Amino acid sequence: MIWLRVFLVLVMFATSARAGVVRLKDLVEFDGVRGNDLVGYGLVVGLNGTGDGLRNAPFTEEIMTSILERLGVNVTGEQFRPKNVAAVIVTATLPPFARVGSQIDVTVSAIGDSGSLLGGTLIMTPLNAADGQIYAVAQGAILAGGAAAEGDAATVVQGVPTSGMIPSGARVEREIEFDLGSLDTIRLALREPDFTTAGRIERVINQEFRRSVAIMRDSGTVEFDVSSSRSPSTAHAIGRIENLLVEPQRKARVVVDQRSGTIVMGDDVRLSRVAVSQGNLTLRIEEAPLVVQPNPFTDGQAVVVPRTGAAIEEDPGISLAEVPEGTTLSEVVAGLNALGVSPRDLIDILKSLKAAGALHADFVVR
């Protein structure tokens, strides 16, 4: 069953690799069209006894005192130990061209010893960017995806109840100053740099405008001349090219997840001529000590006599098999499947093939 799962993963990956062309906007990032990360520190209230223990999280008491004083409640010198509040870090991404008044999603994560944020409400929390300025304010009910239950002698937790999100939970209060229309040229940054793919992007764009408006600068950058495209605006020019279809050229890659035994190989993986053999060697040692009692009516003592059994067993394993030069992915899968190689053994074989220089692909182990 495990081998069948890996085999299906391999076939699915090979099929997707042959899917052909993809949209340009799925291959590149447009210069200046990017989001900005936001972060804030806030307080969640309304928890059902799963809040922070204030003795272990004094910062929770400090922010709670600060919020109450801003609301006109004087708590100086007061001792309170509520169990329904928790200090949290709030994160969000400000999308490109976000305008004042638009709403964005936020993620809320506990930083104290709160057991769960389920049912809590985030109090008004300012979100800052890297420049220290406030760009959004978050508030609302939290949707936590996990659950936790606790008894006197057992605790059960499903998912991560100490983290949740608030859909459209933040409102944009400041805009990022960026004038897209003032750009005469735009750089297209490839997510996976490749000279062949960059050249194809250049050719497709020039064919669309029937003139030379794009040029490949390196494996990761294609420069697009907006002024030469004769478009009404920069936005019109981007909208015209972002859905152009390009066939990307991908590197040959083998990805191995040692924890689950999953192996994924791309369609371009090739092997040089090599011979493969695999087997298992088992060393077994058994201790069976024997106790010898003294004869009756004597002053002797019992003696323990050691007895050890040692044996070496070698499984038949897999006979030596030859893999011809230029073997493709489907041939590798069919051959290893015929040899009865398990996923764990296949990982060892692939490592040895890479070490021997016979596997022509990037070997990534996770």
UniProtKB/TrEMBL annotation:
Subcellular location: Bacterial flagellum basal body
UniProt keywords, alphabetically: Bacterial flagellum, Cell projection, Cilium, Flagellum, Periplasm, Signal
UniProt KW Signal keyword: yes
Function: Assembles around the rod to form the L-ring and probably protects the motor/basal body from shearing forces during rotation.
Family of this protein: Belongs to the FlgI family.
Record note on quaternary structure: The basal body constitutes a major portion of the flagellar organelle and consists of four rings (L,P,S, and M) mounted on a central rod.
Identification of the protein by name: Flagellar P-ring protein
Species this protein is from: Arenibacterium halophilum
